[in-house]
Design a protein that fits this description.
295 residues, two-stranded antiparallel ribbon, 10 strands, 13% strand, globular
């Protein structure tokens, strides 16, 4: 069983996907194959993750037909610009070994070079028109970024992928997405960014939150399952990351229970309003300069 969401251009997308951020290339193929064997039909990757090729290998290893798997990937900032972004599609499709990409999105707003961001999005519009992608979108766009993008382009993004978990719910961004008919997709949906190594020691681990633990015990589920269910019941897409087959299967076991209105509200109330991942308004010139290899 799964939940399908209909994007603003009529394309359907499985609400729950496997994320592969920080998945080492040598682990990614097996993780994708395990996810597809479990029942996932949506895989999220990105040029900057360095594992698009392995995602494609995992999909082929699954034995599923291409049209059975929804593939989402992202253009990195160093490939922003009209012609550069058209070529970014060539690179991504070549590594994935596919003839089309289901959802192609810009990885960052990159406000320090927003004119190139606009040109990159216009290239996405062209790819959509040409049928090389089925839907287009953005990632880490805050309401002011969306406003500026919409003022300069023709097609409303289908998806906006943002940091979103119980400790950081971004209500303003969710409201802006909803007002424009954009689906909100949660990265770090179970708060992984709050305890990834290297992201600072003064972080509260949402997986250990007492309020979530109570709800998990009520339903005989794990905290991760409760958080994923919270996203799905509120109409969002979520892309939890794991390379552990047991965790991958556990994260998919969220279709046989339902959270009450009170439980959803209790999770909403945990919001600390504190971003743990990179701030989309802060330029990161060294990171943005990352060169995406041709092959």
């Amino acid at each position: 069983m799964t939940i399908e969401l209909t994007l603003n251009n009529g394309v359907t997308m499985p609400a729950l996907g496997l994320g592969v951020f920080q998945s080492a290339p040598e682990e990614t193929t097996a993780a994708v194959a395990a996810a597809l064997a479990t029942g996932y039909r949506h895989i999220d990757t990105a040029a900057a993750y360095g594992n698009e090729r392995e995602v494609g290998q995992g999909i082929r290893a699954s034995g599923l037909q291409r049209e059975e798997v929804f593939i989402e990937t992202k253009v990195w900032v160093s490939d922003f610009g009209y012609e550069q972004t058209l070529h970014a599609w060539d690179k991504a499709a070549g590594k994935l070994n596919v003839e089309y990409i289901d959802l192609f999105i810009l990885h960052q707003p990159a406000p320090d070079r927003f004119e190139k961001t606009i040109e990159a999005y216009k290239a996405l519009e062209r790819l959509l028109e040409d049928g090389r992608v089925r839907s287009i979108g953005v990632s880490n766009f805050m309401p002011h970024h969306l406003k500026d993008l919409l003022a300069s382009t023709d097609i409303v993004p289908a998806v906006n992928q943002i940091e979103l978990h119980p400790y950081f719910t971004q209500p303003d961004a969710q409201d802006a997405d909803a007002a424009n008919g954009i689906l909100t997709q949660a990265w770090s949906p179970i708060g992984g960014i709050t305890f990834y190594p290297g992201w600072g020691g003064d972080r509260r681990n949402v997986m250990e939150d007492p309020a979530i633990a109570v709800i998990a015990r009520t339903h005989a589920k794990t905290p991760a399952q409760v958080m994923i269910r919270w996203h799905l019941q509120q109409g969002r897409s979520a892309i939890p990351k794991s390379t552990n087959p047991q965790r991958i299967a556990e994260n998919f076991g969220v279709f046989d229970f339902e959270l009450s209105t009170e439980e959803l509200a209790a999770i909403d109330a945990l919001d600390l309003g504190v971003r743990n991942g990179p701030d989309p308004d802060v330029s990161r010139p060294e990171r943005f300069a990352l060169v995406i290899p041709e092959a």
